[in-house]
Structures are given as structure tokens and as C-alpha cells.
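Sorry, can you check?
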Amino acid sequence: MSNQSSQSISVLDRGFVRLVDHMGTDLTVVNAARVSFGKRKDVFDEKDAELVSYLAEHEHTAPFRHAYLTFHVKAPIFVFRQWMKHRIASDFNEISGRYVEFSPEEFYIPKLLRQQAKVNKQGSDGQISEDVHQTAIEAYTEACRNSVKQYKTLIEMGVCREQARCVLPLALYSEVYWTASLQSVAHFLRLRLDLHAQWEIRQFAEAVRTLTQPIFPKSLSALMESQDQKK
């Protein structure tokens, strides 16, 4: 990897997305494509931008897999369980509850709780009734705190970390390093920026896009636009 970075964006109440490293630029993509003809360029120009658009439009995606990004992400476990479905040309290393004892307040508390959507069985639609919202937030928070309290109690009783962690909530924050090809990042963004995706993971996807766009402005836009046209 090269071009080390420490750009970071805060997400939700305790999370973040940090660009750790990246390899390549838009020029990397076009040079990967032009090697088929024994060609190589040192400066990216308008013809290269046209080539990038052509590659994306016609799904010649291999050149986009020669550019990579590495992110350090802190997010709730339920977000990572969705994120980690994106395994092609990407990899994850996650903080381990076998080695690390989790902090007592490291869980996600939403500002509002949403009601179940009537049409979309897997999604949500607007805030729950205001007259029960505060009570629901308190119940949610108490459940998380109690889980962490019991986790701490089990450790104090001598239970090993790898078993004690089983009682922890999905709202608990975890941390990963995620390294992915540019094509894989674009695929993640297309799915997780969609309005049908869960709101929480969309916030992390927005941060990933914000950090990726300046490095691969033409390539990322071309990949995103080509898929938008196919919808």
C-alpha cells in the first residue's frame, strides 16, 4: 500500500470511518486497461476519463480491481453483520473479544426509534409514537447496559472473555480494518446508499463515499453512474 492517510469522519454517536491507506488513482485504472495493448500513460487526461466511463458502462470491471483502499471503521455489530456480506475483493480484520475487554458504555443509542414499515417487511418507516418514544429509548438503553453489566459480572466471576462476550448486545460497537478494491467499494456504496438499506449503515456508506471520491473522482463516479443507468 502507499499514500498513507488519516482522514476521519464521525458517524452516529460513537462511530467513525477513517481512511488509513490507499493504492492507486484514476490513472491506475486506465493503465491496467491499456496494458492489454502494451500502452501506459503518466498523466490522466480527458481521453482517459472517457475510457473510464466506457469501462464502467460496458462492465469491463477488472481494471477497477487494481486500485485499493483501507479503512478503519468503528460501528455497531449489527452494522458490521450487514457490511461483512461484501466479501468479494475485500477483507476484514475485527477487534477480538477474546483478547479485549469491552468498555461498559460502548453501545449505540439511537436518537429516535423507528416503527416497522407496513410495506417493506425488513425495513422501517418513520418514528414510533411520541407518547412512548422516551419510554422505549429508556428500555433500549437499560437492556444494553444490563447486558454489559452481566458481561462484566461474568468476567469478575472468572468466566473467560470468549464466553462472557456471548451476552453482549448487537448494539455494541466493534472496530475493523476493511481493505477492498475500488470495484468492491463501489458495489458496497450502490447497495448501502440505497433508500432500502438500513439508515444506520447508510450513514457509514456516506462517509466511505466522502473519503473515496477525492482519490478516485472519475472512476467512482463512473462505476456509480453505470449502475444507476441500469436500474
